[in-house]
Specification:
Blueprint (H helix, E strand, L loop, with lengths): L6 H11 L7 H7 L4 E5 L2 E4 L4 E4 L2 H4 L8 H13 L12 H13 L4 E7 L2 H18 L7 E5 L8 H6 L3 H4 L9 E4 L4 H4 L5 H19 L4 E6 L15 H12 L2 E5 L13 H4 L6 E4 L11 E6 H8 L13 H16 L2 H17 L8 E7 L2 E6 L15 H12 L2 E2 L1 E3 L2 E4 L7 H24 L4
Parallel strand pairs: 3-13, 5-6, 5-7, 7-8, 8-9
Antiparallel strand pairs: 1-2, 2-3, 4-10, 9-10, 11-12, 12-15, 14-15
This protein binds 3-[O-phosphonopyridoxyl]--amino-benzoic acid (PXG).
The site of 3-[O-phosphonopyridoxyl]--amino-benzoic acid has 18 residues, from helix 6.
């Protein structure tokens, strides 16, 4: 089985043997999966030779772009030298040491320790057990509730899927597990009603204080949140939201977990989204941009105060691939490139401002209500009526799906979440590629609009 086989044969084999995440399997089998064969920079190539502009950087993760041979060489070198050894049982190895040191240098002041995992989900499972173990060691074992938001995404394991607030996930498999409490999300466009964004931001943040009081302050271990919700639709909170959350976290002395799986490593124009949103977490979840997706790796960067407590006991937790040497070596090379090529600075000073200016012109399109973008993660809200911020009559996601299909047919990858369209391109996307992105987005919106009118959907 190779890239050179006919697409139809590859699709048939895929349908016969491969189960895809978050996919209606038989539906996909009927139409055949798109087979991506190669990629370079911000561009994908599929098995039919189409060149596709990947405005999603894979799954929000290929921050340095595709095709960086330095990472392949780092992987090969490490595989030849030490393809695997574990970090259990009093052992370690140079890649884990070097990567954890690099992360301590890049992280904000006071973050000097990392616990590695194989993914963001595994890292959030670590965090759930970390914060509960921390409080138990502080003599408060009843402090085991973690508060999160509806429509947050923290992963797809039992623990991280419970921390997340995706009701469609909870309905399958009996989630959430006990002692995880959800409050509403700061999604002003969809849920703000007649409130100003500023009033709404305060109202939603104050739900955290109400929840803590309702549950009992002595029961609450932590609050987990993405600085900016990603998979929930790139929901940028009103400016009043995070300062109020921070005040409440400080007031009750609970731990703050910032889930930086998407926001981390330059996505928002700083190394971490916590810096962009001016929040002070105790733990930061990392994955995705940590290795630019070239290797599966995740982790938790832990502040000194929490690390000191956890290091004072045997923390009975960890994974076979915690600190996998090849994954660590590739992640280290990825961070070296991000750092030495000043990619985060270029995003902040050159390409993100350019992208923002061009992206916001999409609000001139009749289908587009609001455009929100921070750094290199943005979304537009599709609506039949901008003034009222109305939802479409069709089931949520119907229009988003049509628009997503139009994008694909125009060789542009955008993601839809409900009826919001999302971009999260490689951080190295060039200005002329941004122009192409906007042109193809506009064309796809026009085609989607025409289809909606033809089908009487608006
Ligand atoms: C904020 C956040 N936290 C944790 C995870 C879980 O990471 P892993 O997948 O590596 O276990 C994520 C992952 N985010 C994610 C994963 C898959 C698809 C999409 C999408 O938007 O379609 C988003 C994420 O976005």
């Amino acid at each position: 089985i190779t890239n050179h086989m006919p697409t139809s044969e590859l699709q048939a084999l895929d349908a016969a043997h491969h189960m895809h995440p978050f996919t209606h399997g038989s539906g996909l089998a009927g139409k055949g999966a798109r087979i991506i064969t190669r990629a370079n920079g911000a561009w994908l190539t599929d098995s039919d030779g189409n060149r596709i502009l990947d405005a999603m950087a894979g799954l929000w993760c290929v921050n340095i772009g595709y095709g960086r041979k330095e990472l392949a060489q780092a992987a090969a070198r490490q595989m030849e030298e030490l393809p695997y050894y574990n970090t259990f049982f009093q052992t370690t190895h140079v890649p884990a040491i070097a990567l954890s040191k690099k992360l301590a240098e890049l992280a904000p002041e006071g973050f000097n320790h990392t616990f590695f995992a194989g993914s963001g989900s595994e890292a959030n499972d670590t965090n759930l057990r970390l914060v509960r173990t921390y409080w138990a060691e502080k003599g408060q074992p009843e402090r085991n509730i973690v508060i999160s938001r509806w429509n947050a995404y923290h992963g797809s394991s039992v623990g991280s899927g419970s921390l997340g607030g995706m009701k469609g996930m909870h309905m399958q498999g009996g989630l959430p597990i006990p002692d995880i409490h959800h409050i509403d999300q700061p999604n002003w466009w969809a849920e703000g009603g007649d409130m100003t964004p500023e009033e709404f931001g305060l109202e939603r943040a104050r739900q955290l204080e109400a929840a803590i009081e309702e549950l009992g302050p002595e029961r609450v271990a932590a609050f987990i949140a993405e600085p900016i919700q990603g998979a929930g639709g790139v929901i940028v909170p009103p400016d009043t939201y995070w300062p109020e959350i921070q005040r409440i976290v400080d007031k009750y002395g609970i731990l703050l977990i910032a889930d930086e799986v998407i926001c981390g490593f330059g996505r928002t124009g700083n190394w971490f989204g916590s810096q962009t949103m001016n929040i002070r977490p105790h733990i930061m979840t990392i994955a995705k941009g940590l290795s630019s997706g070239y290797q599966p790796i995740g982790g938790s960067i832990i502040c000194d105060e929490v690390a000191e407590v956890i290091n004072s006991i045997e923390f009975n937790h960890g994974y076979t691939y915690s600190g996998h040497p090849v994954a660590c070596a590739v992640a280290l090379e990825n961070l070296r490139i991000l750092d030495e090529e000043k990619i985060v600075e270029k995003v902040a000073t050159e390409t993100a401002p350019y992208l923002k200016e061009k992206f916001e012109t999409l609000t001139d399109h009749p289908l587009v209500g609001e455009a929100k973008i921070v750094g290199m993660m943005g979304s537009i809200a599709l609506t039949p009526d901008k003034a009222s911020r109305a939802a479409f009559e069709a089931e949520a996601g119907t229009v988003g799906f049509i628009c997503r299909e139009r994008c694909f047919s125009n060789n542009l990858v955008m993601r839809h979440v409900g009826d919001r369209m999302i971009i999260s391109p490689p951080l190295v996307i060039a200005k002329d590629e941004i122009d192409t992105l906007i042109e193809r987005a506009w064309q796809s919106l026009d085609e989607c609009h025409a289809r909606l009118k033809d089908e009487g959907l608006m």
